[in-house]
Structures are given as C-alpha cells and as structure tokens.
Amino acid sequence: MATSARNGPSVWVKGVGHHRGAPRVYFDGLQAIRAGFSPGDPYEVVLEGEGERQRVAIIKCPEGTRIVSAKPAKAARGARGDGADPAPLVPVVDINSKDLLAIFEGMNAIRVVVTEQGVYLLPLASERKKRERLSRLSNKLTQGQPLLMGSLSHGGGVLSHAIHQGLTDAGVKCDLAFANEIREDLLLQAMEHNDAWSPATMALNLPMQEAAQDDWLLGQLPKLEILEHGLPCSGAGRAGRARRGLTKMEDHPEVGHLVFAALVILTKVQPAVVVLENVPLYAETGSAMILRHQLRDMGYECHEAVLEGKDFGSLEDRERWCLVAVTQGVEFNFKDLVPSVRIVKTVRTVLDPSIGPDDPRWRAMEYLKIKRERDAAKGSNFKMQIVDADDTSVPTLRKGYHKGGSTDPLLQHPEDPNLLRLFTAEEHARIKQVPPHLMAGLSDTIAHQLLGQGIVYEPFRAVGRRIGEVVGELIAAADDESYQFEQTAPRPAVG
C-alpha cells in the first residue's frame, strides 16, 4: 500500500550506475513506497532549475508519460506456485537517460530527496559545494575581483602577510576578510601594523571554539577563496607533550581539540583553498588525520610538505609542516617550490649596528653557565647554544625567547668570550625574514612571543605565490563549461 512522506522529507544516497551507455538511477521497494509510488502509477521526470541549482524532479501525475513498473517482493522471489495468492509486487522507479541525468556526469552517487511534492534527484551536498567553490573562484579571477582570505589562530598575522605577499607576487589580488585570534594585544597589533589588513577586515577576538558556536557570528562570515591557519602546536611538539605529561596532542586541555572548531568554521566559509602550518609532528596526530579525511570528503585534495627555512635563505632553519588542500579541479603541487640557488648568509648581516661592544645588553650570563655545569653533572642533554657573528645558522628562537632560557641561542661578544647577549626583537625578525614593521611599537617580550610562535616568512610567501600561480590558471579555463555555474536566487524547495 502506497504511503506519502507526510512525516517529513526523507533523504537517501543512491549510487549512479550505467546501463546501455547511459547513467542509471534506480530505486524500488520501501524506498519507492515511501515516495508515494505504486505499481502502475503514471509519473513524469523533468529537469528543473538552472546552473548549479539544477535537479531532476520525479512527479506523480495522471498525464505522466512514464509508468511505475513492478517486481515481486524479495521474500516472494523464487516461491513455488501452489495455488495460493500471487506474490506481492513492489514498485520500481528506473531512470536510464543521458539527457535527464547529464547533470550527474562523473558522479558515483547522488541525493534522493523525498517530499510530499515529489522526489528530487540532486548532487551530493559535497559535490554541489565543490562546484560552487570552483565557480566562485573562477568568476572572481575572470572578473579581476580580489579573492577573500580568512585567518584562524592569527597571532600577529605573519602567516597571513606571507600568503598575501605571495599572492601579490603572482599577480593575484587578495583581501583579508576576517582574522580570529584569542590574544587581544596581538590582534590589535595586526590591525594597526599588518598591511594585509584593511578597514573592512573583521577582527574576531574570541576563542575559536566559541566562534564556532556563535550562530550570529557564523552568519556574518563571507564565503572565502582561501582560509589559512596555524592551530596552536603546544601539545604537538615533544617539549610541549613532555612538559604536561601528555600521551597524545589531543590530551592538551586548551588546544588539543581545536581541529573541530576549525572544521566548523571551514565548513561555513567554504574556501577553495586551505592552508595549514604547524610543527612537523602535528602531521602524525589524530587531529591531522581527521582533517585530511574530512577535507577529502568535502571535495578537497590534500598536499603536504615539510618546509625548511634554510632552503629559502633563512638563518633560522625552522621546519614547518604545511598542508595545502585545494578543491578538486585546482591543480597544485610543491614541486620546485624551493629556490634552485640557496642563499647562504651570516648572522652578522642581521645584527643591529647600533649595539656596540660596550652596550649593557652584553652580560656574563653566569646563572646559565652554572646551570650548564649542573646539567652536565647530571648527564642532561640541555646545553647552551652560542652563536657567533660569522655563523650561517641560528637555532630555533622560541615563543619564550625573551626569558633567556638555558637552551635559547645567545650571541657571542665580538671581543670578550665571557660576554653574551640575547638577539633583539628586530634581529629576531630578520633571522626569520619577517618584515620588521609587523612588530613596530611592541615591547621585546611581546615581539619575541609574536615571532617565536610563528613561521619563517619566505617559505610561506613561496606557498602563497604557488597558490596564486595555480588558481591563475583557472582564468585560461574560464570558458570551460565545467567551471560555469550560473548563480541563481535560492529556491524555496529542495536544494
């Protein structure tokens, strides 16, 4: 007995098969009964909508040119005839048409949405969103409009600035739509001194996990072409795990779960390209695995590399894991990202010439030398790291560098071997290749924090340039119908 869908819509995911050289969608039994079909019912199949909002509608109507077919119920198949009632029949709706199902070309599965008004065949939500991202990206590039970028875990915006500059190098315009950062002081610094910002950039000074739950705020966020973020690495590095006694990064009570909030926001803003940076060990975490697999299911292709500062002329050979996820249809690779000629510099080139040999910043650092001897007696591996002006590399300068810890790099006095000093914030910026104006006006303490938790600049400028190059290739393909999806107003029915 046929029933209707009065209790609300039903949604099925159905495979797209092929029969006689044409795509085929087939449903029967309870699925067809719940859709209101009975054997012998007339119905019509029509293509509705335009552009990326097209759908196939299956409507029961007396004047329909198609008839619901029938087959024996599964339990009755193969039963021997014994004079009893004939085997019950169930309805079958079978659509096998190149013309009607052309919008599903290349898809392995689709949505079947059952409502009281009819049955609708539509692309999966992931497929529709993938196509919308490509369309939006291609249209903006073709029309010369700036791409929109968003930033999570913004800090002082060094990564945003590097990606923005790389895009500019490739001739691609970009505007920073919003930046989310929990620290007010760093966000205010970026607002005032980071030229990736504009008056239209939204400042979101709240925890990311709070932003992900704020329906009003999520409603204000625009669709993006690029989303970049460097989720906090406090629980991913060996030192961070050891300090808190963590068995895995996700055990960190404050930042171990932030991949969820990042994915909520990412799902809302639908970027065509996603950039994530972190310590190399982050790539081995459960969070990274969740991110990879969810991005795959959303229609992205993930590309990963470990970028080394020394390959890009940086004195600090900081290694960072970089994941670039591009919407399927955008070609990306890290090939030839590293310059063919490696520039080797000395520490002397970044030193502040105003700091002479008599400057009070030169100190004996006796407390560190005493600790060094104490650690050596205990067999500890903690050692002072002393850098000479003629050295060609500097060990990693961390977020807490201003504290002058026992393993933080110290500069050797040019004349007195007993004297050492910390690098200044400006020198720290030059060591990491970060534009010094991003730290303008900050105390050394805050500047070292901003720099120490961030990136070496040039590798990610190169990533931004490569993104600009590959999305720019879409301009040449702008006339390809696979990128053309007419933008139409939202329809009140299924979509």
UniProtKB/TrEMBL annotation:
The keyword tRNA processing does not apply. Pfam families: DNA_methylase. Belongs to the class I-like SAM-binding methyltransferase superfamily. C5-methyltransferase family. GO terms for molecular function: methyltransferase activity. It catalyses: a 2'-deoxycytidine in DNA + S-adenosyl-L-methionine = a 5-methyl-2'-deoxycytidine in DNA + S-adenosyl-L-homocysteine + H(+). Keywords: Methyltransferase, Restriction system, S-adenosyl-L-methionine, Transferase. The keyword Methyltransferase applies. One of its GO terms (biological process) is methylation. The lineage of its organism: Bacteria, Pseudomonadati, Pseudomonadota, Betaproteobacteria, Burkholderiales. The active site is at C233. This is DNA cytosine methyltransferase. It comes from the Bacteria.
